[in-house]
Amino acid sequence: MTTARDLAIVALDVAADKPVEQGDLSLALAGAEVFDLIEAKALVLDDDRIRPSAQSPTGDRLLDQAAAALVRQEPYESVEEWLWRRGRGLSSAYVDDMERIGLTTRSKGRRIPLPTGRTVLVDSAARSAATDRWAAGEPVLTALAAAAGIGDEPAEDTEELAGDAATAVLAAVGDAVMELEGVRQRKAIEDAAFDNVWRGY
């Protein structure tokens, strides 16, 4: 399985206890895809620019879509630009795809079987692999999950994350999540101000 899919599985496992912001998760998933595409040799990072390599099927539908979506003209795309473009709605895409391939199911109501129940993971080899990787504290998965608000912040001195590519991707994910939180806070303030005006304050 891929880092992105493992992250989506971990997010669903944790979501029952602590809901995850979908926007934060989508940005982290887009970052995870960068790591997966580097490993698949579908791209290389040139500073913070994503330079595509020869495209070959990865065996994962969403990752193949990600590879096909890479900008192939210079000056190419920065990691940050990729996160915002690819990340739009990406958490929903992963949830839908996991249901399509049988990794999740929807819980039904006790009396009325509603079609829109909560998405729950089924026991599978993919789930076991993701939870084993999570329990082992695999550095990239842990860092991406932390950026999405899952689990604890990883130790800053994690040696396994040394390297320009890992540093660039994780920094871009962290910055994008902070920017998204700023947007949420501004919207909340604007909504509160509008409500006060509406009430006559």
Description:
This protein is 57% helix and 8% strand. A three-stranded antiparallel β-sheet has the order 1-2-3. The protein has a two-stranded antiparallel sheet with strand order 4-5. It is built from eight helices and five strands. The chain has 201 residues and is mainly α. The longest helix is centred in the C-terminal third of the chain and has 36 residues, at 164-199. The protein is globular and about 50 Å long. Strand 1 (43-46) and strand 2 (49-52) form a beta hairpin. The protein has one domain (3-106, 117-174).
Major sheet details: 3 strands, antiparallel
Spans of at least 5 consecutive residues whose pLDDT stays below 50 are: 110-116
Find the count of extended strands (DSSP E, 2+ residues). 5
Beginning-to-end CA distance, first to last residue: 54 Å
What is the overall shape? Answer: globular
Rg, alpha carbons: 18 Å
Mean pLDDT: 86
N-to-C series of helices and strands: HHEEHEHHEEHHH
The neighbouring-strand order within the major sheet is 1-2-3
Number of helices: 8
Number of domains: 1
Helix percent reads 55-70%
SS-based class: mainly alpha
